[in-house]
Amino acid sequence: MFARKQSTKAADVDLRFVSDAYWTPPGPAALIEVPPAMFMYAAPTISRMEVFASAVFEKTAAAPMGEFFFLVDREGNRTLAAYSHMDECSVPMWVDSIDLIVVARELRDQCRRDCWATEAYS
Description:
Strand content: 25-35%
Mean pLDDT: 78
Number of domains: 1
Structural class: alpha+beta
Distance between the termini: 33 Å
Oligomer: single chain
Largest sheet: 7 strands, antiparallel
Order of helices and strands: HEEHEEEEEH
């Protein structure tokens, strides 16, 4: 099972939110929670993938501002990731890593380039 201690490295600090939002670390999720768009990208390998999810919350709200979904393919040493918000989904992207912190950083940067809000007031 995937387990990761909370990082204290300076490179990982930028993933933590210090304003009005916080990011929950990736944890196991059910396949039914995954946005349907991800299935088109993962179809040939979906049976061997592990599902993880994470979310961004406002400190004053109970509902997430958005969710990150990760389909980890340990055999192929890569992860399919997407950001979802209110039934809309970013274009799923493959990242050549199974380290979810690395994948989350890549996905966040891609969402910024594509103008998807992945943090408060962005």
